[in-house]
Amino acid sequence: MAGQTPTTNRALWLHSFSSPPSIINLTIPEATAGSVVIKVLSTVIVPYTEDIHKGRLPIFNLSLPLVPHPSHIGRVHAVGSDSVSLRPADLVYFSAFITARDNEDLFVIQGHHGGEDPRAKKLMNGEWRNGSLQQFQKIPLENAFVLNSERLCDCLGYTPADLHEISFYAIGIGAISEAAHVRAGETVLIGPATGTFGGISTEIALALGANVIAIGRSKSKLERLCELLGNHERLRTVVMTGNTEADTAAIRAATTGGRGVDVYNDWASGGLEGSPFFAAAIRAVKRRGRVVLSGGPTGTIDVPYAFVMHQDISITGKLGVTRDGIKLTISMVESGILLLGTRGGASHSLYSLDDHEAAIHAAKESGGFKVYHDIMPNTW
């Protein structure tokens, strides 16, 4: 009934990597000082969710049991005593990157990543344990970003599912803007560019005025990427063959005068060991160029020491995005520079918490850039 105070918090509970998660009832969290409780409206299920739930991606370093999954779009349910801006019913984007308040070098991704340092386990095992696949989630106050509901929903017609694309674009901003410092007119090489984050980063780089070369093994997927981005005049593609010398030559041939690229952004996926394109791609980087590693593979990569030194190339790792990067992303969405949902050519298939198995399976089978599968713990 409208206006009725909820009494239970239905949640997806991941208690073991050897058995599937199940629906349980938790208590609704209390909004204490420094926190806010959000009524979760929508979160996108990523294609590798099943692999996380089955423990196939140990890089995520999860401590069980917990409610899994990271960011979401929701409405404020209750605020802590020190909140000065957030109000109940505010529409918000929740960024799940949690940094220890007394040590900025320690972080977790709430419900998704247990951090790299043993001390970070205190965050994952304590206050900020449970993720977004529940009806009500307690999050740090500073991780809730208020959205302009009138502009985004009433004017542009976006739904919570559409708005959760902000989480992907923010990661792209972290790599392309914050780490690579891409400027208008530069040439950016992105690969693999046919996955969710590679595609997002391609779109971000184009939006910032760069020329982009997208690389991948599949010609048809690269052609589909071009279609989704409106066959942009500043976007070119190169089909990779696995022959390092030939692939480097093909990349350079796609640049102005064959001079190479200013930036290479690597998005090797979590199921790989090392990067399949790194060896060829880095040799196409110009003198004083930048390389940003932002994928999730295990293993190592071979760096051509003398080449990198002689060419004065910088290599940077980037995970996530800062608060300023998130604000920039939201601003680009609100201004219409970045288009979401059907405006941007994306599709969303919606599922309830009870249909989580179907959502996870569908995301694994067909999820990707601009093809999204969303779980909605509460109705919009």
TrEMBL record:
GO MF annotation: an example: oxidoreductase activity
Alphabetized Pfam families for the sequence: ADH_zinc_N (PF00107)
Domain of life the protein comes from: Eukaryota
Key words, A-Z: Metal-binding, Oxidoreductase, Zinc
Cofactors demanded by this protein: Zn(2+)
Family: Belongs to the zinc-containing alcohol dehydrogenase family.
Record's protein name: Alcohol dehydrogenase-like C-terminal domain-containing protein
Organism: Paraphoma chrysanthemicola
